Amino acid sequence: MKMKSLIAALLASATLGVVAAQAADLAVVSGDTGNGLEFLRSQLDRFEQETGNKVTIVPMPSSTTDQFGQYKLWLAAGNADIDVYQTDVIWAPQLADQFLDLADAAKDVVGEHFPSIIESQTVNGKLVALPAFTDAPALYYRKDLLDKYGKSVPKTWSELAATAKEVQDGERAAGNADMQGFVFQGNAYEGLTCDALEWVKSYGGGQIIEADGSISINNPQAVAALEQAKSWIGTIAPQGVLSYQEEESRGVWQLGNAVFMRNWPYAYQLGNGDDSAVKGKFDVAPLPAGEGEGARSAATLGGWNVAVSKYSKNPDEAIKLALFLSSKDVQKERAIKQSNLPTIVALYDDADIAESQPIIPNWKEVFQNAVPRPSAPAKVKYNEVSSLFWSAVHETLSGKGTAAENLELLEAKLTELKGDAW
User: Could you report the per-residue pLDDT of 388-403, keeping only the tens digit for each?
Assistant: First the structure.
């Protein structure tokens, strides 16, 4: 019996050794805003229980510009400490060489996602990243204040400016000196590229660089769009909006100090939290249209994905983590708890999501107005293109030159950057 007990103990020890050998220590980077890190941690706890792996979150700045800069430094150095990266939808062409091809690992699930999103993450036949959620911003508006002043949801930017000014002034006169008409992302970073692209496109001013590679930004419609936005600073938007990113905008809004806000879907769930001054008092609508030929509502296409570093010491387990974070179950829970838009088509008809987040089925109208940033035509030079664009816009909003002057200079810089081809 002693010998049998010894053999059993050795076998048990060997089994534990196999489990320990299979377990891996993984690291994922995240620049999630709001309560996004808390949600991610809850999902990673599930993954750890199911696989025996351990996953550490490496927090990143909320600025996508800062994130991208850090990613490039790490990847260029062959950093093996990070296994899984959360990536913006526009980064695939620029980082493709640094990530593993996930096409074979995901062959059974890619068909569940919107084809256009899978296409956006495919570079030269290589599936660079798996979609986690998609994004398109909307106009958040205070239902209670519009009702109070007998106003309807604005359909154009001019209507928004007029309504915002009237309600803002009325509320200030009634005692809320902090009330602002409109808050958005005015800081000089990728977020301003998103906002300003919407303004320009909504006026029929193109997409900075068109699909054929032509530089289109220097045109009268784009000038009119940026001059309109410039007129908001110090009138319906605070001077400080020039330093706002998503969270600063949400902070003002959630304290009840804005009539309108431009932001992404994540702000909807947080705005209806128990600690929010605007809980139950707001709704969302497509962003306003501009004026003139080609005017329309436009919403910059966003979204986040998960990619596996080719330098990972545990590539198989890292791929499992990427598949998990992009899975139907995780996307459903993210939709319910975070109000993030799924990339899996079937989830838009999911009864649980519709019941807990009726805004998600309704976001289809916003999503139909989505406009991609020019990352495809600009390819590896997109980051420079975006930086030049947001800088020109920020100069204009700050009163440093007119929109016409700044866009003419921008066109010259983009032409020089382009050279013979993108």
Answer: 999 999 999 999 999 9
Mean pLDDT of 273-280: 96
Among 370, 386, 405, the domain boundary falls at: 370
Judgement on whether residues 254 and 403 belong to the same structural domain of the protein: yes
Q: Are 189 and 69 in contact (CB under 8 A)?
A: no
pLDDT digits (tens, 9 = 90+) for 220-263: 999 999 999 999 999 999 999 999 999 999 999 999 999 999 99
Domain that holds residue 55: 15-136+301-370
Residues 312 and 406 in one domain: no
Q: What is the pLDDT of residues 3-37, one digit of tens each?
A: 344 334 433 433 333 343 468 999 999 988 778 89
pTM of the model: 0.84
Our measurement of the distance from residue 262's CA atom to the centroid of its chain's CA atoms, rounded to an integer in Å, reads 13
Please state whether beta strands 126-127 and 122-123 pair in parallel, antiparallel, or not at all (unpaired): antiparallel
Matching residue, tokens 């969302």: 284
Domain count, the chain: 2
Cα separation, 176 vs 168, in Å, equals 9
Torsion angle, alpha carbons of 112, 116, 119, 120, to 10: -120
One domain, residues 164 and 200: yes
Residue 116 sits in a domain whose CATH number is 3.40.190.10
Strands 282-285 and 138-142: antiparallel
Helix (H) or strand (E) holding 30: strand 25-30
Residue 235 within any structural domain of the chain: yes
> Considering the domain boundaries, does residue 7 fall inside one?
no
Terminal CA-CA length for the chain: 76
Give the chain's length: 422
